[in-house]
Design goal:
With 269 residues, this protein is an alpha/beta fold. 24% of the residues lie in helices and 32% in strands. It is built from seven helices and eleven strands. A hairpin with a 4-residue loop joins strand 7 and strand 8. Helix 3 crosses helix 4. It is globular, with a radius of gyration of 18 Å.
Length: 269
């Protein structure tokens, strides 16, 4: 019988940032380019906080575009990887659910790849948005990209069967089998992912979840925390199909599986 290492003992991706980049390659820095396009179109200042920066790829792209970037993450291993492999930004440890990196210290907060949805509870969402408002100068922007809770109203194609992916890392073939389920009571999309490799290592099971936010709910939360929603749409974006490309403008619908939001911090407190 093969034993399975539980998620509480190990987080394979955050413990191995190089494995993360192998599993989720972004050689064209599409997410960073999309974020920079939003900032440039709306004329924000140069000081940018990438909240939940992970391995630092997007933060480094924004730095290369001329921004003064701070990348923040909770994972020390991700931050260590970012400092070595994606230098340029300042990298700091901070908690998404509540952080203080200085009042009015930034002209924009960027939060990509569903990072915002790791705020599972209303208190955590309030903590994140309050922290963003505190961090932003008046008129500063919050730019976020995430799964769209509205997509799961009556749709099951992402829930019907596990998704299997395989890739080679350090000479071993790694496979991930991912199952998604909707927890309607908690309003969460729960993910179970089992990792296997052909190098003889034990399977690793990881469990995580995203908050399912609906477009009008998000608009209300932003307004309650002193933000004006400028753009709210389902694409094009860095993880839509087809993906965003330079010159593409925001759409007008909020029906597909990704949600993109740009909001402006309103007048001073």
């Amino acid at each position: 019988m093969t034993s399975t290492t539980s998620a509480s003992e190990r987080n394979l991706l955050t413990d191995n940032p190089e494995l993360y980049e192998a599993r989720f390659p972004d050689p064209d820095r599409l997410a960073g380019r999309w974020a920079e396009d939003c900032l440039r179109r709306l004329g924000t200042g140069q000081r940018v906080l990438d909240m939940g920066c992970g391995t630092g790829r997007d933060a480094a792209h924004l730095h290369g575009a001329g921004r003064r970037v701070t990348g923040a993450d909770l994972s020390e291993r991700m931050l260590a990887h970012a400092r070595v492999h994606h230098p340029g930004p300042a990298y700091v440890r901070a908690d998404l659910h509540g952080f203080d990196l200085g009042q009015g210290a930034f002209d924009a907060v960027v939060c990509l790849d569903s990072t915002l949805l790791y705020c599972h509870t209303n208190d955590q969402l309030d903590g994140f948005l309050s922290s963003c408002r505190h961090a932003l100068a008046p008129g500063g922007l919050l730019v976020a990209e995430m799964r769209n809770g509205a997509f799961f109203l009556g749709r099951t194609e992402l829930l019907d069967a596990p998704t299997v992916n395989a890739f080679t890392w350090r000479g071993a073939v790694h496979r991930s089998t991912t199952t998604l389920t909707v927890d309607r009571t908690a309003q969460l999309l729960r993910r179970t992912r089992v990792w296997t490799a052909d190098d003889g290592s034990a399977p690793v099971e990881q469990r995580s979840a995203w908050r399912l936010l609906f477009p009008q709910e998000l608009r209300h939360l932003l307004a309650a925390h002193g933000f004006e929603t400028l753009e709210l749409h389902d694409g094009p974006g860095p993880r839509t199909e087809p993906p965003w490309r330079e010159g593409m403008l925001p759409g007008r619908t909020v029906d597909a599986d990704r949600l993109h939001v740009v909001a402006r911090r309103t007048a001073p407190d």
